[in-house]
């Protein structure tokens, strides 16, 4: 046994040295002083536990991803400049107090807001997939499909069938899914499509050399683009549960949108970037002149955010819109674990008299974010925010409605993961008619929801409050 003592001492010393080196890195890259302190203390005091956790969860920037227009890829840059030139003739800005949001988005992404598009609201899975499948069946040239989750179930196989049929009639088809989100998808699903000429890729965050532990990031985008003319995006993934066929969740409440018109190329760009990361290739793309003109015309810009950005467009746009709201701020999200700037912006809106309402699901699909949400109750109550819990089944939509004409619909949850760790995609829209449709949708959802008692956290027993606080400590990783 005596020979073990020097070995154990050597291993302990090596761990301590590695822990100190990683603690120095944590201090340099941490997003907040609190994070830097927590990581550095853990890595020095308990390196055997903290080192593997840091390797998985500690990175603040996603490495190896090339953003278009940043001189990292000639082909991506050429695509970016082609898209910007194409959009120039349709360029517009948000008006009124929300003008700064579109200016900020343009400065960060360099993709302008555009007018002249047509937006259709799609409520729940049946309506959404009927519209998506109709577009796929009518496709003549190209179909791009991207989802966080694809299941090999009834709806997943129906999607595969329609893509196979499209490929057989000569349509170029590409499919992309997140490796973690679609971990249950069997290889046979992709193999069948590949045999028919469909290009299928999984988004793997740790594929590149030296990035083996980079697994805390996700590609959470949901996007379908048909013939470069029509785009679908929102909260729905491909699975039977998203159509309310799950015994566990029952009815599934979600929101998607169909967009046709000049703004579609802006959404194409996020797909090009993701595909380039996976394959090193930029797919051929088209910029057809859109045939849609609507009066009055919605102004739309894409919020394509992700951890590869130095300045994320997502929190910038959300904070600008929330801080500019003067009358109404209604939010629906399956998770409510906001970072401090977003949380206090929401509370400050209520304090200055804005009608702030938040709908969250009554049911939990992920325990940690569900528990974490209760820790925000005291401040929400003090600020005058009203909160509802959606009762029938599970609510998964990600929608923001501000004042009379501003909306955001897409994949972005009101949580730290969506704002800092995930690749996300939403559409920001200024249009009174579209906002009116969302208002009607929200009012129907309020009718199916129960007002929440915001004293529930403070009045809960000690064990409940400890569980909520412990869950909130893990909020950056949920």
What does this structure look like?
The chain is of the alpha/beta class. The protein has three domains: 54 residues, no CATH class; 202 residues, Endonuclease, Chain A (2-Layer Sandwich), CATH 3.30.870; 165 residues, 2-Layer Sandwich (Endonuclease, Chain A). Helix content is 43%, strand content 20%. It has 17 helices and 21 strands. A hairpin with a 3-residue loop joins strand 7 and strand 8. It is globular, with a radius of gyration of 23 Å. The model has no long low-confidence stretch (mean pLDDT 91).
Please outline what is shown here.
The protein contains 17 helices and 21 strands.
CATH superfamily of the largest domain: Endonuclease Chain A
What gap, in angstroms, lies between the N and C termini?
43 Å
Extended strand count: 21
Morphology: globular
Helix content bin:
40-55%
Oligomeric description of these chains:
single chain
Radius of gyration: 23 Å
The CATH class of the largest domain is identified as Alpha Beta
**Could you describe the largest sheet, including whether it forms a barrel?**
10 strands, mixed
